[in-house]
Amino acid sequence: MSAPRLPEELLHPQPAGLYCPAGDFYIDPVRPVARAMITHGHADHARAGHGTVWASPQTLDIMAIRYGESFCDTRIPVQDSTMVSGIKTCFTPAGHVLGSCQITVDDGDTAITVSGDYARVDNPACAPFQLAPCDVFVTEATFGLPVFNHPSPRAEINKLLRSVAAQPERCHLVGAYALGKAQRVIALLRQAGWDQPIYIHGALQRLCDYHIEQGVDLGDLRPATTKDGKAAFKGQIILGPPSAFAATWAQRFPEPVICFASGWMQVRARARQRGVELPLILSDHVDWSDLTRTIQELAPTQVWVTHGREDALVRWCELNQIAARPLRLVGYEEEAD
Length: 337
Known about the structure:
This protein is of the alpha/beta class. It has two domains: 7-147 and 285-326, Ribonuclease Z/Hydroxyacylglutathione hydrolase-like (Metallo-beta-lactamase, Chain A), CATH 3.60.15; 153-280, Rossmann fold (3-Layer(aba) Sandwich), CATH 3.40.50. Helix content is 23%, strand content 25%. It has eight helices and 19 strands. It is globular, with a radius of gyration of 21 Å.
């Protein structure tokens, strides 16, 4: 009878990403590979050009929307779990964006959960986070410093609505990434009682349409075009991708209040660098308290940290008698939050 694999034998980093030799697949590889499992549709985790891709049905749809129908050779949708070359892989909601999942690799002796990106706060635009029990937890650490404790999403949305009410002669331009953040801001606005039209940049349209198809209530969305004149946008809320704010697009609107929805808006210097008048601290990643709470609740024997503030989290684990190490993976961006 063969000895159980060490965790490092079941899953370990290679230049292309985290690799499972027994199953001969990668998780969120940063370059094209023959067999890939994808946690979610953001471009730093989901790339085109793979052979076979396993992912949630929604993530596969999102990749097709972003990259075209031929983004890979073969798509295999996974609802809950599947077997690949004798390795059981389970897909558990990550609470990050629509379709996002943690992927647990289990050979019968050891279970390793790769979180991808995850969040544990109110997000009406995707399924909520669920704990995925494991022996080894592979976690991000985007906001892996004690200083990052984000306010409640509802409080930030109410801050936006108070500003709109106080400045009816101006419009509010909200920078929000096209996948996940834009739809979450819109859905939170609807939950808060904003029943007026919300105007969106054309780059957000297709992914917003897909969220609506998937049952996410985004209400009345309209194109953010100024064919009716600037005055039509007074007192209105307009969403666009952050890239559009560096172009002439933002200058089309009446005295815009520039807003940006991101966990990084807790860092005032970043808000100033972007010329943000109204920072909205809305993150789709765990902050320090939720990050450490997740580890405590999972109680894994080991923690591997993939990207972000690796050293601080490794040190916290050591102080709490949890074995931990940084993986030093490259190719995952921290800005898209």
